[in-house]
Each structure stands twice: as structure tokens, then as C-alpha cells.
Amino acid sequence: MKRQLEWGFLLFAVCLIFVIRFGVLEGSSGYIKVNLLSTPSLSRVRENWVPGLEGNTSAPEEPRIKLSDLADPPSPPRNSTSRNQTVNIWGAWGGLKLVLNGSNLSNEMMEGFREGINAWRGLKQYFEEGEKPKEKGAEGCPFSGSSTDNSGRLEFPCGLIVDSSATVIATVTGGTGSFKFELVGTRGVGDFRAPPIILHYGVRILGDKGTDEPVIIQNTWTRATDWGEEERCPYRDDSNKKRKQVDGLDVCIEQVGKAMTWKPQGERVSEVTKWSGVFKGPEKPKTWFPFAEGMPFAATLWVGWEGFHMTVNGKHISSFEYRKGLEPWLVNKLEVSGDVKTSSIIAAGLPTSERWEEAAVLEVFKAPPLPPKSKRLKLFIGVFSTTNNFDRRMAVRRTWMQSEEVRSSNVVVRFFVGLHKQDQVNKEMLDEAKTYGDIQLLPFVDYYDLITLKTIAICIYATKHVTADYVMKTDDDTFVRIDAVLAAIKTRRSPRSKSLLLGAVETNAGPDRGVNSKWYVSEQEYPHATYPPWAHGPGYIISNDIAKYVTKMSAKHGLQLFKLEDVAMGIWIDSYSRKQRRGIEYLNNPFFISAGCEENYTIAHYQMPRQMLCLWQELKTKGIPVCCN
Ligand SMILES: *[C@@H]1O[C@H](CO)[C@@H](O)[C@H](O)[C@H]1NC(C)=O
Ligand SMILES: *[C@@H]1O[C@H](CO)[C@@H](O)[C@H](O)[C@H]1NC(C)=O
Ligand SMILES: *[C@@H]1O[C@H](CO)[C@@H](O)[C@H](O)[C@H]1NC(C)=O
Ligand SMILES: *[C@@H]1O[C@H](CO)[C@@H](O)[C@H](O)[C@H]1NC(C)=O
Ligand SMILES: *[C@@H]1O[C@H](CO)[C@@H](O)[C@H](O)[C@H]1NC(C)=O
Ligand SMILES: *[C@@H]1O[C@H](CO)[C@@H](O)[C@H](O)[C@H]1NC(C)=O
Questions:
Q1: Which residues line ligand 4 (CB under 6 A)?
Q2: Residue 62 clears pLDDT 60, i.e. is over it
Q3: Where in this chain does the record put each Galectin domain (predicted)?
Q4: Domains of the chain, earliest start first
């Protein structure tokens, strides 16, 4: 019996060696035969090296934009239905025009407006054509997509959202052993210039100028900034070995590029080593790498909260944190090219708009009509959302927007959404806005750099179109217990004599001066060492006098447009307090959870649509605020 076991083990060990030798490493040893110094292969390597910009450098002139192009939101047709609709959809648009005219806007903001004007041109016509019966089976935003024609490309007509994924099934072919996956951004309407590369995922099995070892290079490209800083996997040197994580996943798993040597243990196995020596010369260490020549693979690129993640044959390999202005909603297509034969690309979890056919259920999800200004609301809630987050908005409508206070119009909720560069998304969003009556469209492309303008838009809307005691800002991935928020407001000590900022208040935070930090703030942007008190962005509440002040000052260009909107609000409140000698009550509440969900939350952040539904269900059935995971 014992003997049998030992033989079994020996056999197993031999098999293992075969598998490793010929299964995993054989592919990668093949490429060493390519003569790197022969001219054709060198030039091919170079071609794939720093990814060349395929495109036309002598592209047409940038379309010239006049701010006056933005001047008029769609002129309201003369009859009343449409006029109401105009207020329903473009209520903050006019106010933002004043901000645009004369403010000291950053380049990023100007770019957002400029592209917004282009996007608006496409949408304007669609709007003015007016109601048309929706064709059955008309092209919308599909939930999934696939490409099986070996073209190596797949388009995403409505961008990507968190949890979207694309799986590429392909085989590495011979040659230079270089190939790339690229997530390419959207070319705006009437824009002929090269679109940004939101993720360049380059694989060099032969290594590149920096190394002979196989390497994965991740990067971005934009017209304005060219290629960004390369992120290499494995890391080039030990200095940046601080294993960074994105969404809790390693930016580059340790195993990539690690030497793999077969270390036999014990006497019996040494016989195996002898055997293996017959097949192959002396052992050389090989490095582990997820791709090898001749090897088929299934690579899944998926969208997280903080970055893109790459899984190869079911194993997480690398992650890439989103860079400024290069976010997943902007992605227009995936392109696979180089020495790789793609058999299919399958995408799932794409942003898709609800089909409007279920008219019966629909009524409950429509916003009640905007109450007249004479009605005093307890609270106005502005929800930040981006264009293609159809599912998040729908989850909010199905859950906390069903609260009694909202249905009875004591609390009014509106989404604040910019424009997308893809026409299809804007059209779907406009249809959604008309159907549900709870969306405010803003005249700029929805880059993160412009969110401070959204905060201003909320203040403008809350001042011009409703009368509310308090104004709350939140996000479309935040679950809000409206009754708990109203109860939290009631805990204030001095409602009459002071203004309010309520939420997760920070009193001692300062700017991050680390140049490589995601939250880097330069001295020029903010010279002081600490910020005035501010409250975390997923949910804070201000009293209406602050909203009025922000609205008034925005038209006079008197606001510092600091890029972090929640801190910006803190700065404005501080200047309000100084200029008008107004006392501010900073009310910190520990149940405004901005880092996720905790029991007894008043607001919970980072909630996916299915979690929102679960939280709502728990509240309804158990009556207690517990979390869902
Ligand atoms: C580059 O753009 C110019 C001007 O638009 C055009 O005439 C030319 O054919 C383009 N070249 C290529 C290679 O596309
Ligand atoms: C309102 O205007 C639209 C188009 O501008 C028109 O089709 C519709 O009949 C008008 N409605 C009324 C009530 O006049
Ligand atoms: C438009 O809004 C006003 C109140 O602002 C309301 O009285 C009127 O009925 C609305 N008209 C339509 C057609 O909904
Ligand atoms: C823009 O501002 C200038 C002065 O700063 C003013 O003369 C002009 O009327 C403003 N334009 C609009 C559309 O408000
Ligand atoms: C506009 O902002 C830049 C830096 O953001 C600053 O250098 C410049 O002085 C400002 N101009 C005005 C008119 O405020
Ligand atoms: C949540 O609230 C309940 C009731 O007030 C309390 O018994 C429980 O301890 C609270 N849980 C946490 C984690 O604070």
C-alpha cells in the first residue's frame, strides 16, 4: 500500500513537471528564438513600443466655440406643457450661463463647457423634433454586446459603468509577442481629432527597452497631455514596490515576473530531476507571466469603483486607477491589436436604460409635479449623477425616492446630470428626463473636474424654483434615509440665529500636497495649510440662506471654484460667515457614513443598485437600518 502511494506520488510529480515545462513555459521559451536584432523584428518592436498614435496630426482645426452658443437653452415652445417641461429639465441651465460668462474657469472646466456645446448641438435637434412615438425595438443602450468576427473591436454605444466587463478570448500569435488592449474614448460630435485612450494595456512578452523580461504596461493618452506615466507590471525597480491597491486589489500581483524554479525536495524526487534533464538541458529560472506565445487566453477587463481590473484565465493580474478626466463612462470601444488572434469579445453589465413599456409601474416612479414656490418644503435634495448611470437613478427611484415625504412633496429630489459625448446616451437621458421629470440637465460634459459647478447648479435650482428650508447634496450611489435626515436637522441647537452645515464634518483637514496623490492640491489652487470646516460629499445639508448666498455670488463670479466640491462648499460657507458676519452651526453627525455602510446609518455610500434595493427591503420589512453585502 505504502509503495503504491509512493509510486503514485512519483507519477504525479512527473506529470507536474511535464505540465509546467510544456504547458506553461514552453510558450514563453519559444519567443526567445526571435532574433531581436534582425531589422524587421526590431522595427515591429518599436512600433508597439511606445504605442504610436494612429491618427492624423494635421487634423482639422478645433471647432470654434462662442459662449453665446450656450446662451439659449432650448427656447420653450409657446404652449404650456412644454414650458413646464422646460423648467423641469433645464431649470439650472440659465443660472450656470452667468457663471460661465466671466468666471475665472480652469482649463478643464472650459474644456467641459466646450465639449458640452458640441454635445448640445446634437441633442438640441432631437429635443426640438419633439415627442415622437418610440419605435418598437429601436436601438437603445444595450445591456450586453459581443463581437465574434475576429475584428478585435467592440463598441460600447453608451459607455461603461461600474461592474461592466469585457472578456477577450484570443491566442497570442508569433512575431514580436506584443499586443495591446485599448479602451478608447469618445470623439465628440463634429470633433475630428483623436479621442483619448482611457486605458492602454500593452503586453510585451519579449520585454521592451526597459527589460528583457515580459512586461505589462498600462497607460493613458490624451491630445492635451500625450502619454502619461507608465505603470509597469512587474514593477521596474523595488523602489515603487509599495504594493498599491485599487478597490482592494493589487495593482500588480506579486507573482508576475517572479522567477519560477523547480526545487525538488528529498531523494526520491531527485530521480525525477535526472529524468527531466534528459528532455531539457540544465535548469534555467523562468518567469511567470499570464500570457505566452501560442497560448489561448480569456482576459476579462472589468470596471471597478476606483479603477480598471484585468483578470486572465480567472486570476486577477493587475489594476489601473482611473486618471483625471479619463473615466469609464467615456469609453467608446475596446480595440485589441498586435500579435494576437482574437476569436471573440463579449461585454456584459453595460449601462442600459429602462424600457419605458411597463407603463403601469411607471407612474409610481415619476416625480410628483414640482410644487409651486409658495409651498415651503422641508428639504430639497440634489443628487449628483452622471449621464449613463441609468441603473443607479432607477434604483434611487425605486427605493428612497419612494419615501412618504417625497411622494407627498414635502421633500423634492432632483438628479443633476451633465452631458455625454455619445449622442445616443444624451438622447436616452433626455427621454428619461421627460419620462420621470426628475432630471436637471447641465450644459457641460460630465467630467469630474466640473463637479463644483454641479453644486452651484443645485443651489441655483433650490433658490430659483423651490422654497426649501434646507438643501441637501448627495450622490446616486448613496442611500438616504430621509426621515433620519429630517430628524438629524431637528437636533440643531440654534436654528434661528445661525446657518447650518450638517453631515460628516471635518474641522481639521488640510490639502494633500503629495504630487502623485489623487487628491493633490497645489499651493496655487489652495495656499493655506488647513481648510475651513467642510462636510463629506456623499451627503451634507445646508440651510437655505447658504444656498441663496452661493447662487448670488456665482452670478457675480465671487466664488472660488475649488475642484473638490465638498471642500469648496466649506470655503464658500466660511467666506459667507466672514462677509456677512453670520454664525455657522457646524453639526457633525456620525451616522452620515461616507466610507460605505454601517448599522444605523442615516446615509450609506458606495451602494450598488442591488444593494440599494436590499437596504430598502430591509428597512421596509425589519424597520431597522442594517447593511447589505
Ligand atoms: C490627414 O488630414 C488631412 C486634412 O484633414 C487629410 O487631407 C489627410 O488625407 C489625412 N491623412 C490621413 C493619413 O488620414
Ligand atoms: C404644443 O406644442 C407642440 C409642438 O410644439 C404641439 O405638437 C402640440 O400640439 C402643442 N400643444 C398644445 C396644447 O397646443
Ligand atoms: C404647469 O405648471 C403650473 C404650475 O407651475 C401648473 O399650474 C400647470 O397646470 C402646469 N401645466 C401643465 C400643462 O402641466
Ligand atoms: C457677460 O458679462 C458681460 C460683462 O461682464 C455682460 O456685459 C454681458 O451682458 C454678459 N452676458 C450674458 C449673456 O449674460
Ligand atoms: C485666474 O486664476 C489663475 C489661477 O487659477 C490666477 O493666476 C489668475 O490671477 C486669475 N485671474 C483672475 C482675473 O482672477
Ligand atoms: C443601532 O441602534 C440600536 C437601537 O438604537 C442599538 O440597539 C444598536 O446597538 C445600534 N447598533 C450600533 C452598531 O450602533
A1: 71, 98, 101-102
A2: no
A3: 152-348
A4: 89-119+375-622 (3.90.550), 144-260+278-348 (2.60.120.200)
